[in-house]
C-alpha cells in the first residue's frame, strides 16, 4: 500500500491542563479500510479524531495523509484535501431541505453550484435518500438524520471519513441499513473510514480492524475476532460475554 493511500498518526498526544486525554497513540487506516475505534467513556476517542481532523491541535506527535504532513493544517484545509468527519451532534441546517444541506457541504469545499448540486444528487442516490431530497431536515427521522450527516461529509469528496457515533439512537434495522450504506461507499469510492461507535454489533460486523483505547492509550489493535478474545479489552471495556452484539458499556466519549 502506497503512502498516498494511508492516513497515519504517530505518537499523538493531547494534554488538557495536565490531563493526558490522548497519550502517545499511533493509528493508521488505508484506502478502502474500515477501522473501528472503541473504548470506555473518556478513553480519548473523540479527542483523537479531533486531532486527526484539525479540530484540536495535538500537544505532540504527527498526522500524515499520503505524503503530506498535515499536523499543522486547519480543519478546513484538511477537509478540502480529503479528510472529512461527522459529529456526535449531527448539526444539520433544520430549515434547509436534505438536498440543500448536502449541496451546501459541497460548496463549502470549493465546488461551483452546478457541480455541487450534481454531487448532492449522486450522494442522495448512494445513501438511499433521494425520496427525501425536498424534505426539510427538521422533518427527518433519527436514522435519516444520521444518513444526511454522512451524506454531507461524502459530498465534500473525501479520501478518508471519520464517523463519530454514526449509529447513536438508531434501532437495529436502522443500524443495519447504515452499515450497508457504509460498505457500499467503501466499495464504490474506496474511502478509508475511522468509526467511533459504542454499538458492538455494528463494530464487530462492519470493521476490518478495531483499535481499542483506554486512558488515552492504545491497548489493542486487531480483527474483530481478535479483539473479542483480548483479555485486556475484555477487562477494560467489553466484559466477559461479547459475541458481536449489544452496546458498549459507556456514554458518549469526549
Explain how this protein is built.
There is one protein chain. With 254 residues, this protein is an alpha/beta fold. The protein has a domain at 15-89 and 158-238: 3-Layer(aba) Sandwich (Rossmann fold), CATH 3.40.50.300. The chain has 9 helices and 10 strands. It has helices spanning 45-53, 75-80, 98-108, 113-126, 142-155, 172-189, 200-206, 224-228, 231-238, and strands spanning 6-16, 19-30, 34-38, 60-65, 68-69, 83-85, 160-164, 192-196, 209-214, 217-222. The strands form 2 sheets. It has a 6-stranded mixed sheet with strand order 6-7-8-3-9-10, with helices on both faces. A 4-stranded antiparallel sheet has the order 2-1-4-5, covered by helices on one side. Strand 7 (160-164), helix 6 and strand 8 (192-196) form a beta-alpha-beta unit. Helix 4 crosses helix 5 (142-155). It is globular and about 50 Å long.
Amino acid at each position: 500500500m502506497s503512502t498516498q493511500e494511508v492516513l497515519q498518526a504517530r505518537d499523538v498526544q493531547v494534554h488538557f491542563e495536565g490531563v493526558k486525554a490522548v497519550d502517545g497513540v499511533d493509528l493508521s487506516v488505508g484506502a478502502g479500510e474500515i477501522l473501528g475505534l472503541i473504548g470506555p467513556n473518556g478513553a480519548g476517542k473523540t479527542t483523537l479524531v479531533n486531532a486527526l481532523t484539525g479540530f484540536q491541535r495535538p500537544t505532540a506527535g504527527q498526522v500524515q495523509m499520503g505524503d503530506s504532513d498535515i499536523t499543522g493544517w486547519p480543519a478546513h484545509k484538511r477537509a478540502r484535501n480529503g479528510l472529512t468527519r461527522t459529529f456526535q451532534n449531527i448539526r444539520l441546517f433544520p430549515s434547509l431541505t436534505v438536498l440543500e444541506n448536502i449541496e451546501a457541504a459541497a460548496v463549502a469545499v470549493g465546488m461551483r453550484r452546478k457541480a455541487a448540486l450534481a454531487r448532492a444528487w449522486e450522494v442522495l442516490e448512494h445513501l438511499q435518500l433521494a425520496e427525501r431530497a425536498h424534505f426539510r431536515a427538521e422533518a427527518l427521522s433519527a436514522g435519516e438524520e444520521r444518513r444526511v450527516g454522512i451524506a454531507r461529509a461524502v459530498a465534500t469528496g473525501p479520501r478518508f471519513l471519520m464517523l463519530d457515533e454514526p449509529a447513536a439512537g438508531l434501532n437495529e434495522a436502522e443500524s443495519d441499513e447504515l452499515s450497508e450504506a457504509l460498505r457500499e461507499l467503501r466499495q464504490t469510492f474506496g474511502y478509508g473510514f475511522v468509526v467511533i461507535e459504542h454499538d458492538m454489533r455494528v463494530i464487530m460486523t462492519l470493521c476490518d480492524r478495531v483499535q481499542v483505547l483506554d486512558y488515552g492509550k492504545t491497548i489493542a489493535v486487531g480483527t474483530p475476532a481478535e479483539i473479542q478474545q483480548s483479555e485486556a479489552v475484555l477487562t477494560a471495556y467489553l466484559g466477559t460475554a461479547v459475541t458481536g452484539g449489544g452496546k458498549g458499556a459507556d456514554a458518549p466519549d469526549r
